[in-house]
Design goal:
Helix content: 40-55%
Distance between the termini: 42 Å
Strand content: 15-25%
Strand order of the largest sheet: 14-26-25-24-15-22-23
Number of strands: 30
Shape: elongated
Largest sheet: 7 strands, mixed
């Protein structure tokens, strides 16, 4: 089950399409330019999607002007602020790969001929027409023309590269265009020198031709760009898959007739019809019919959800079995599907903190490489090498350097990870939340609705005095039917499930002290807690002990009596979700300290916490206190807060990461950083696992991007020639550059195969902080069995007396169960505890550890 999201994105972010960017240096330049515009509070540029997200009050015209001054073009994406053009399937269509494929094909046609001449004929004497074999100048001119053709085909490198250089913002295209131009320019110089030389000298100038290097550099870079574009397209497959779910048309019921209209024309309140096998066009409520809907594409839940009158349906889900007639409740940008797509696209538009290191390097990378290339050429010339040799080393430095790999390392992993999460019903709102979730040290879980079902249920029916279970439940149903209390609803629901009917009562009254009374056929019915019932009738010792046992198990015992005679106990409890204990174990296996927050008393909280297996229990937490508890926990480590209620919103906001269960309130979903579409706690360790996998993938990408340049640039410059004789040809340098970006993107695609619910490879994070609460390991408990307590005043007297003893941390006293649970920070003798209670006028009949 899940609840559609509503107003999920509170922050206002304008999204723009930016063209002309080719590497991380470009993104850094655009970000710097736009961030300098007055009124801009945040700017994030994404090289993967060529998009830019801007927050603030600056106008679109000012932002676009700033981008143009930086040497690039920008346009505001169509649609309003929360429905960018990025949300259309056409916007994500891979338009770049076909264009690059055409460029590559045309380049190869000329390059093959050029390589035949320059390498095949010159090195291996492959045959050529006699006109060329006897005329070296003609052969040089032919190579110049073939190389020129390749340069014209790939003119985009030169236009972008030199344009950015003029704007004093050199990028990857600048390096490629400088390298290719240097090789072409020097070769052209050699060709002119050949025309003025003698026949013998002309032959020697042919060895100074680097035409094939220039053409090969451009062709190999184009090949790399094509492979990169193709792989980048695959990182958005998850998002494209979500977009394909949305039907293009809807069948509406108007004036008694059925008409097909584009889904954009459906308005809130319209009646629409969905037949078996059709996708549901918009969010709505079922008015008529029964069916099962496949919601796996939105929630990852493989079991179809039953839909009956009153059930909600979501756009993009598949109606499997029956005819249903529905009323539209959310259309257009408000549907669950649209909001999921918005979240994934915005996660891609934002920038993870880990990307800042790469951004800082990218900002100075290209100018630094140009300087290194110039120094390399000068150094080799000073060392006595020929101009051709020195130039070849400089060109190698220019073309091997790859700022692209640095720029792509983070966004491709973020896109692949957020898309993978969306396919499994885990939505990360920003790249920051995707990164920080994996660094969790403490998980604070709200009890109700998160660890438990959030709905009280009858767990035990214990009749006495010869009354059957059915008779006891029927009596309770008759008494509770008029009550609005949540526990009464649990009793009524169980009775209705068993097919029982409630008899009509008279003189129904809700009495102070959590009790009910009514008259049925002259008989007086009573119902309530132990304190209430014990004031009206005598409760046998064995039943009192059973009540205490139920309370220790985290259940609430309700007593029922008729005409002064006890009929039995019905225990009600908010049951733990099936997957909660396993999810908590998985988090603990990851090295995460799991804390349960609850407003219950310590005894009930301890019983539920023990069943769930949490590491620490914080009981008696009022809704307004949750935020302060989170702040205290943050002193011990990074905190994730998981909740579903309106009262969880402040805590979700103040935590390092807030995770909202999808079946929770819209306010909680709005306040959270991560949204779980299913109400399964097992998705929390899955989200942490996915975050860690994405972070690990980014580290791998950045490592290879940095190490590639750290090793590649010195190798290209010829640093290793004097020691090992290693010399890198500019053509091989270009090939290495092309493969670096391709390898980074391909590595990110591995996330599409990540199994986020597989706990076999979980690992514990290192943490310096001590997560366990102070003195937790040294705290012991003793349970005192006390006779004579009758009311709250009795409880308060005993509690106050016990807590004055040095070494007593806390005392939870209950007159209902006749116990006092004492938490001890040091050893205290039973004699001292008994005397303290006796001094207050009560008797301790036993002490249990």
């Amino acid at each position: 089950m899940f609840t559609p999201l509503k107003e999920v994105l509170k922050y206002i972010m304008e999204q723009y399409t930016v063209t002309g960017m080719s590497c991380a240096a470009c993104t850094a330049r655009v970000e710097k330019a736009v961030s300098g515009v007055k009124g801009v509070t945040s700017c994030s540029v994404n090289l993967l999607t060529n998009s830019m997200g801007v927050e603030g009050t600056a106008s679109a015209d000012e932002i676009i002007a700033a981008v143009r001054r930086a040497g690039y073009e920008a346009a505001l994406k169509k649609g309003n602020k929360n429905t960018p053009e990025f949300n259309s399937e056409d916007a994500l269509k891979d338009k770049e790969t076909p264009l690059l494929k055409k460029r590559l094909t045309a380049s190869l046609v000329f390059l093959i001929v050029l390589m035949y001449i320059s390498m095949g004929h010159m090195m291996w004497n492959w045959p050529l027409p006699s006109f060329f074999t006897n005329n070296h100048v003609a052969l040089g001119i032919l190579q110049l023309l073939l190389t020129g053709a390749v340069m014209i085909i790939n003119q985009k490198f030169f236009i972008s590269g030199f344009k950015s250089l003029l704007h004093r913002a050199p990028n990857m295209d600048t390096l490629v265009s400088l390298g290719a131009s240097a090789a072409f320019g020097y070769s052209t110089f050699a060709l002119f020198a050949m025309t003025a030389a003698s026949a013998d000298e002309a032959m020697s100038w042919t060895h100074e031709f680097y035409f094939e290097s220039s053409a090969m550099i451009l062709t190999l870079i184009t090949l790399g760009k094509m492979l990169e574009a193709r792989s980048k397209g695959k990182t958005t497959d998850a998002l494209k898959g979500l977009m394909k779910l949305a039907p293009k048309t809807a069948t509406l019921e108007r004036n008694g007739a059925e008409i097909n209209v584009p889904v954009e024309q459906v308005k809130k309140g319209d009646i629409f019809i969905v037949r078996p096998g059709e996708n549901i066009p918009v969010d709505g409520v079922v008015l008529e019919g029964n069916s099962a809907a496949d919601e796996s594409a939105l929630t990852g839940e493989s079991i179809p959800a039953e839909k009956t009158t009153g059930s909600t349906v979501s756009a993009g889900t598949l109606n499997q079995s029956g005819f249903i007639r529905c009323q539209a409740s959310r259309v257009g940008e408000d549907t669950t599907l649209s909001q999921i797509i918005q979240m994934v696209s915005d996660a891609a538009a934002t920038k993870a903190p880990i990307a800042k290191t790469a951004d800082k390097v990218s900002g100075v990378f290209v100018p630094a490489v140009i300087v290194i290339a110039a120094i390399t050429v000068a150094a080799w010339l000073i060392a006595g090498q020929t101009a051709g040799f020195a130039l070849a080393r400089g060109i190698s430095v220019l073309v091997i350097s790859c700022p692209c790999a640095l720029g792509l390392a983070t966004p491709v992993a973020i896109m692949a990870g957020s898309g993978m999460g969306a396919k499994n019903g885990i939505l990360f709102k920003t790249a920051v939340s995707l990164e920080k979730t994996g660094k969790t040290q403490i998980a604070a879980l709200d009890k109700t609705g998160t660890i438990t079902q959030g709905k009280p249920m009858v767990t035990d029916i214990i009749p006495v005095n010869g009354i059957s279970e059915k008779e006891l439940l029927s009596l309770a149903y008759t008494l509770e039917i008029k009550s609005e209390h949540p526990l009464a609803k649990a009793v009524n629901q169980r009775a209705e499930q068993d097919g029982l009917t409630a008899e009509k009562t008279e003189q129904f009254e809700a009495l102070p002290g959590n009790g009910l009374t009514a008259s049925l056929g002259g008989e007086v019915l009573l119902g309530g807690n132990y304190r209430f019932i014990s004031n009206h009738i005598t409760v046998p010792e064995i039943i009192s002990a059973k009540s205490s046992q139920l309370s220790e198990e985290g259940k609430t015992p309700l007593f029922f009596a008729r005409n002064g005679e006890l009929c039995g106990i019905i225990a009600v409890s908010d049951t733990i979700k099936e997957d909660s204990p396993q999810a908590i174990r998985e988090m603990q296996n990851m090295g995460i300290h799991v804390v349960m927050l609850t407003g219950d008393n310590e005894k009930t909280a301890r019983a539920i916490g023990k069943k769930a297996g949490v590491s620490e229990i914080i009981s008696g937490v009022l809704p307004g206190d949750k935020e302060s508890v989170i702040r205290d926990l943050q002193k011990k480590g990074s905190v994730v807060m998981v909740g579903d209620g309106i009262n969880d919103a402040p805590a979700l906001t103040s935590a390092d990461i807030g995770i909202a269960i999808g079946a929770g309130s819209d306010v909680a979903v709005d306040a959270a950083d991560v949204v779980l579409m299913k109400s399964r706690l097992s998705d929390v360790p899955a989200a942490i696992r996915l975050s860690r996998a994405v972070l690990r993938n980014i580290h791998e990408n950045l490592f290879w991007a940095f190490i590639y340049n750290i090793i590649g640039i010195p190798l290209a410059a010829g640093v290793f020639i004097p020691v090992f004789g290693w010399q890198l040809n500019p053509m091989f340098a270009a090939a290495a550059m092309s493969l670096s970006s391709f390898s980074v993107v391909t590595n990110a695609l591995r996330l599409n195969f990540f199994k986020m619910h597989d706990s076999r490879r979980d690992y514990k994070i290192r943490k310096k902080t001590i997560i366990r609460s102070e003195n937790e390991e040294n705290t012991k408990e003793k349970t005192l069995i006390i006779k004579g307590m009758m009311c709250e005043h009795c409880e308060n007297h005993v509690k106050k007396a016990l807590e004055t003893i040095d070494g007593v941390k806390n005392a939870e006293v209950s007159c209902e169960t006749g116990t006092a649970v004492v938490s001890l920070e040091k050893e205290i003798s039973d004699k001292v505890l008994k005397k303290t209670v006796a001094d207050q006028g009560y008797r301790v009949t036993g002490i249990k550890l």
